[in-house]
Amino acid sequence: MRGRLLHGRSTKAKTVILGGLKDHLKTIRRSRRIVFIGCGTSYNAALAARPLLEELSGIPISMEIASDLLDRQGLIYREDTAVFVSQSGETADTLHALEYALENGALCVGITNTVGSAIARNTHCGVHINAGAEIGVASTKAYTSQIVVMAMFALAISGDSILSQARREAIIDCLFELPCKPHLPTFPAHSSFCCKVRGVLELDQEMKDLANLLIAEQSLLVFGRGYNYATALEGALKVKEVALMHSEGILAGEMKHGPLALVDENLPIVVIATRDACFRKQQSVIQQLHARNGRLIVMCSKGDAASVRTGGSCKVIEVPQAEDCLQPVINIVPLQVI
């Protein structure tokens, strides 16, 4: 984020600068719609940013898995902006989707972690997430960095909107609280101004204890909603990739349409219930799962344990609270550690 966020006392001093997009912002703002295209973790990161993009831009946002877009030859128009999200910038399906979008005349934007990659070279403009090389096969820090960059993308294209000014300032303030600041005390004593992500990493031993409880299990369900539906999908994906264990991310609003039939005392379930507009609905989900004797692990905001704990067998993970659109950056870390 260094050099991309300006943060001062005055309203005008709080802004986002994305040099790779500055010559195309007017075109993006005039788009008929913005289509985000990716695979796997990159798709999940775009999904996490979708609500904020819709809220701030006022432009219809579409999400496409690259392979599915190609299989059905989905519609891409000249008036569209197509955003291609890829950690490596070389994902085969995403590259083919880029070729398809270029053929159809769309403005193409790349969000990658690799300078000089095929996607970076062949798009009209773009943003590098600057997360550093991913050492393992599973994408972790690139995922959180992609969410942050897409939040900044939303801020940049809504920069001329007076109506969303207060919301934009709150998000920029929160972005400054996310990275580690070594000179500041750590969570929880000073969570209002310290490194929130470092605060989650301090739960390392607690996550190891939970992992030991899950190590012999055959399956895991992860329920999320709103901004954290993507967190549920990504958390389940990481369990599959790293732990080689079956796991499924589920939209909590769809619980009654099939998933509830699977719930019993033998099935471990993670419910993401941090404070946001969906909190009360998630409390209801927790109660219904508890009524079915589900083995619950509930992730909540610090101080909310009593509000979500349903019984002695319910495990609770308390994480720092952030602006709702950036909460997925924090919430995914415990699931990555597990």
Automatic annotation (TrEMBL):
Domain (SIS): residue spans on this chain: 24-163, 210-338
One GO BP annotation of this record: protein N-linked glycosylation
Top-level taxon of the source organism: Eukaryota
Record PROSITE patterns: SIS
Keyword Cell inner membrane set for record: no
Entries under Gene3D superfamilies matching the protein: Glucose-6-phosphate isomerase like protein, domain 1
Species assigned in the record: Thlaspi arvense (Field penny-cress)
Entry keyword annotation includes Repeat: yes
Gene Ontology MF terms in the entry: carbohydrate derivative binding; glutamine-fructose-6-phosphate transaminase (isomerizing) activity
Protein name: SIS domain-containing protein
Keywords of this entry: Repeat
Pfam family, one: SIS
CDD domains: SIS_GlmS_GlmD_1 (cd05008), SIS_GlmS_GlmD_2 (cd05009)
